[in-house]
Design a protein that fits this description.
- By secondary structure, the protein is of the alpha/beta class.
- The protein has helices spanning 13-24, 40-43, 79-82, 86-107, 143-163, 187-197, 216-227, 247-258, 282-288, 296-309; strands at residues 4-8, 28-33, 52-56, 69-72, 110-116, 167-172, 175-176, 201-204, 210-211, 214-215, 237-239, 245-246, 264-267.
- Strand 5, helix 5 (143-163) and strand 6 form a beta-alpha-beta unit.
- The longest helix has 22 residues, at 86-107.
- The termini are far apart.
Length: 312
Amino acid sequence: MKKRVLVTGGAGFLGSHLCERLLNEGADVLCVDNFFTGRKENIAHLFESPYFEIMRHDVTFPLYVEVDEIYNLACPASPIHYQHDPVQTTKTSVHGAINMLGLAKRTGAKIFQASTSEVYGDPEEHPQRESYWGKVNPIGTRSCYDEGKRCAETLFFDYHRQHGMNIKVARIFNTYGPRMNPDDGRVVSNFIVQALKGEDITIYGDGSQTRSFCYVEDLIEGFIRFMNSENDLTGPVNLGNSGEFSMKELAEKVIKLTGSTSKLTFNPLPQDDPLQRKPDITLAKAKLGWEPVIDLDKGLQKTIQYFKKIEL
């Protein structure tokens, strides 16, 4: 009997890679997406599998299906998209969590929450450990996402304590790779698209702010290992790459790898944009035997190849 796995946000960047991996591992996959940021072309190559099913549905409404495992990835994750309709973004995180937890409770399914490094806000601790509570502005333009994800974590742990549910909460740090949306406003896709078009590369701030970049294959491996881990490991667990690069370094790498003639331009930093972001992945190493293996140069090359093939 195949394991039935539900992936919400399954047509998105991360969701499509997860669906593909689960199918390869022999699961029966139900991909749920409302296609606000998810795209059919991300999953079109999976349609021929008899064990892949797609359902258009918004997780802010209850869902009645029978499944063994749930990966809750539904939520726009780039500032351009989550600030487009901030009320809906908060609803997706909060109502979506309530609806998926209700489904997991009814079916007895194990449930995974795709949380985010944004729960740490603009951190005063570096690198960020799971025990750090964060420094988040509750009323800023990014709060719909940051606080929505924080509230979702609260709900997961309360369902776990109150109903004994089997939960897994992962805090995802910057991830990149093929199937990123070219206009999602994220730094890796922005820089690659601008470089391939020969446009100036836009850096916000002075370019000294840092991020850690995890290649998508590495991240999905972390998801699978965490979901298959002992029941008493609920998380939160940081999943990301602990290599740290400034925006300026990233831009220079992209220019070099694309062979572009683009120049760098500098704009003011947006509100509440964190100056540093780097995961402490000690827990993931110890409990999951997981750490990223694909370095930034290799991952960027694969991502650039993808962007060269699609219409920009």
